[in-house]
Every structure is written in C-alpha cells, then in structure tokens.
Model the fold of this input.
Amino acid sequence: MPTCPAGHSSGADDYCDTCGARMAGPPPVTSPAAPTSPASAGAEGTGEPCPECGTQRTGRFCEDCGYDFAVGAGQPTPVTGPMRLVQPATTTSSDITEPPRDVTAPSGGTAPGPTLEAPAGEVPGWTAVVTADRDYYETVLRQGGGTGPDAGAFTFPPYCPERRIPLTGQHVRIGRRSVSQGTVPEIDLGEPPEDPGASHTHAVLLAKQDGTWTLVDPGSTNGTTINHGNEPIAVNVEVPMSDGDRIHVGVWTTITLRRG
Done:
C-alpha cells in the first residue's frame, strides 16, 4: 500500500486517504534552471513537505496551497461577508485649511511681513495726498512776497477736494500743465482750482533702489519747502523723503507722502 509524504498508508495512489496530500509520483520534468536572486536561491530546495498542507515541495511556492517557502507565508486570507460600497470623500470649503504661517518675530520686534519685489524703477505702496492747506496759505500771506508770490492777490479756494495719486515710475513731476509745451506732470496742480504759484515743473520726486523717494527742486520760481519749514530746499539737491513728510508748493498746495 502506498505511503503519503506525511507517512500515512493510503489506498489511493494520487491523494492520501488520511490527510489529502498528493502522493509522491515521478519527478516532474523541469526546464534548465534560470538564474535566481540571492534572496530566493536558498529557498528553492525540493523534497521538503509544505507546513500548511504537507505537499512535497517542488519550488518556492506550494503547488496545492500556494505557501511561500522563502518568506514563510501562505495565500492571503480571503475576505468573507457582504461587500460594502464606500462613498468617495468630498471636499468642502470648511475642509480647506491654509498651511501654517511662520509668524515668529524677533525678540522685542514684530512679525515680518511678506517681501515684495517691485519691477525695476517702480516703488510700490507710496501715495501722494494732494490738498489745499490753509495753514500753509496763511504762512505765505505772512511772508508777503518774500519767497512766495503776491499772495494777497489770490483767494484760498472754497472747495478743493483731496486727491490721492500713486507714485509709480522712476520719477514723478509736480507742477502745472503747459498747453504750449504739451506737458502734463504726474501731480498736476493745474487742475481746478489751479494753484497759480506753482511752476510748470516745480519739483520732482525720484525713486531710489531701496524703495524710498527723494525730492528735487529744479529751480522753481517760488521755491519748495518741507514740513512747514521757512527756508526753501536748495535747488538741484536731492532731499530724502520719509513716510508722512509734507511738501509745500505754490500758494496753498501741500502734498503729503504716505507709504502703504
């Protein structure tokens, strides 16, 4: 009576009557062995019974149950029970969060804001606020005709709305438009009510590489003062400007620089 690989006597010569293991038969015909990797070369022995079903080993995997002799694992355990469909997750606006921002500030300071790079020759964030300034007008009246025009001949405008002009480009001209020359300065004081004391090119703001501005008076008739100063600035000399500085030109015009 034949004996199975596990040592049981069996009346059948194909599978053991006791454990069901395949009975030993003639060795299978195999093709020339292909090169194997070092990890699997030592696991391709033959004659070893499968620990799961007892079938004689002929390669890396058991022919009956699929046991992997190299890693010591069999087939994955089948999933039983009813299948369940899962609804794909949807994204709502409440699910979207911004990445955390680094708001760490140096000791004793404030958190730095984002750094903006301006195009060449253009300084962002500066605005010129143009107003009719009665205090400056009164100063011109007291001077009588010294560095200013004959102010007594001019009346302070009853209505002169504030204007806000962004500072862009490499230079910003301050003055009155010239019809004969066909020029219109960026800060035009020829708009009603026209300031008669301003020259056509009274002063010029120049953009600097560090994001600041300087002021130049190219030689105006009545001069340019800053922050209610009594003496006009020197002609053709750049004067650095800061946030909040006030430029006084003409009879009543004050231009306040604002950054941001």
